[in-house]
Design brief:
- By secondary structure, the chain is of the alpha/beta class.
- It has 2 domains: 214 residues, Rossmann fold; 98 residues, Rossmann fold, CATH 3.40.50.
- 34% of the residues lie in helices and 22% in strands.
- A hairpin with a 5-residue loop joins strand 2 and strand 3.
- It starts with 10 loop residues before the first strand and ends in a 10-residue tail after the last strand.
Length: 403
């Protein structure tokens, strides 16, 4: 394959997590054992330094009808509210007529916050089930994959185009980015929220590598992609959401906006820490096996103590961790979820049953927290269980989080 960003043929294997099922393929009972497995490998481009998967599962399979919902966690909704307020205060506070487009708009959680600030809103969401839920909640949502053609069909320009947790999913990467360029108003701002590869490595969060995440950006590499399409990042900030993300603000390159102090500092840190170097990726791969041993040793200790263990949350990334470490029914009795769309389903690969949190008769001795990126909310919501003696084990602890 050629590099997804710059078309270079200079690609080298950086991280190999073996063969795994598509992590968002939660199974109905009749599908257990029938799920396909695919290679899960990260390549590094010797020219633009972008990290990327070498295998693509078609977007129609991965995103045509997924069950992820943004609105399930209060932490994410609060984050989206803060982003909308920041964008409005900084760029469009006094603008009379303003419009926001959210690409990968999910259940409309982000757009509702823009709507409260006076924006005309429009969502584009590929999952038919999730798009229907958004529409039923009063959020105008087009059930399509966003690309150059979709942008043209909308027939309008937007003050804000938002892409939260979607920019690294893109099979049609260049058509998508051209579509953003064409749909963005002349003074518009493209708000990109993406998992920060530097943080993934710093946190040992190898579970954030899965087939939906085709690309793994640092600021240096995302800028390479945007410039190819006449866009440019002018500001960026680090956010602790999802264990470590970047919120980048881009606009038309011809506006020639200078780099903010925050962006310049983040780029400097990337350079000083060799965040985009192949050796840094290979060092990270070398540490992943040690992380696996650490996790399994902890679970073995619980088993020796005859403690019951449930998985807390059934996030997509959890299936990378479960499958790579081989954590199935011999360790966990089930996964516990809030998301009703996953009721009665089973995890791909390890075939753990998913139970709904509010329907549990009694808690386990230990919760093995797969949704570790919502650590604070989970601990706040479960004070009664903690006081009663239930232990919450977080296999991944983001830098800066209290152990």
């Amino acid at each position: 394959m050629n590099c997804r960003v710059c078309d270079s043929e200079s690609l080298e294997l950086a991280i190999d997590l073996g063969t795994q099922p598509w992590a968002n393929h939660f199974l109905k009972p009749a599908e257990i054992g029938q799920e396909p497995f695919y290679p899960l490998r990260v390549l590094w481009c010797g020219d633009c330094h972008t990290a990327q998967l070498d295998h693509t599962i078609r977007k129609e399979i991965m995103f045509g009808d997924h069950t992820y919902l943004s609105g399930v966690t209060k932490t994410l909704s609060r984050h989206f509210e803060q982003v909308a307020s920041l964008v409005d205060d900084r760029y469009f506070k006094n603008q009379q007529s303003k419009a926001a487009l959210d690409i990968g708009s999910n259940d409309g959680t982000q757009l509702k916050h823009y709507q409260k600030l006076g924006y005309d809103i429009q969502g584009v969401e590929s999952s038919k089930t999730v798009a229907r839920l958004a529409q039923e909640a009063g959020v105008p949502t087009l059930n399509e994959f966003f690309n150059e053609g979709t942008a043209l069909s909308l027939g309008r320009k937007f003050s804000v185009i938002n892409a939260a947790g979607v920019f690294f999913h893109l099979e049609e990467l260049h058509s998508f980015t051209t579509g953003v360029k064409n749909a963005l108003a002349s003074d518009g701002v493209f708000v990109i929220q993406f998992l920060y590869m530097k943080s993934i490595m710093d946190n040992m969060a190898f579970d954030q590598i899965y087939h939906e995440h085709l690309l793994y950006y640092n600021l240096n590499t995302v800028e390479t992609l945007l410039k190819r399409h006449g866009l440019s990042v002018f500001d960026a900030s680090f956010s602790p959401i999802h264990g470590g993300s970047i919120i980048a603000f881009a606009t038309h390159e011809e506006r020639a906006l200078p780099h903010s102090e925050s962006l310049s500092e983040l780029l400097k840190i990337e350079l000083e820490t060799n965040s985009n170097d192949l050796q840094t990726y290979r060092d990270f791969e070398g540490k992943i096996a040690g992380k696996k041993d650490e996790i399994l040793n902890r679970l073995d200790e619980y088993k020796k103590e005859k403690k019951s263990i449930f998985g807390f949350g059934a996030p997509v990334k959890g299936n990378t961790l479960l499958n790579y470490c081989g954590i199935g029914r011999d360790y966990l009795e089930c996964l516990v979820e809030k998301n009703e769309l996953r009721k009665g389903l089973f995890s791909p690969g390890m075939h753990l049953p998913i139970n709904i949190e509010r329907e549990l008769v009694s808690p386990p001795d230990v919760y093995f927290v797969l949704a570790w990126n919502f650590r604070q909310e989970i601990l706040e919501n479960n004070q009664d269980l903690l006081k009663a003696g239930t232990e919450f084990y977080f296999p991944i602890v983001p830098s800066g989080a209290q152990k």
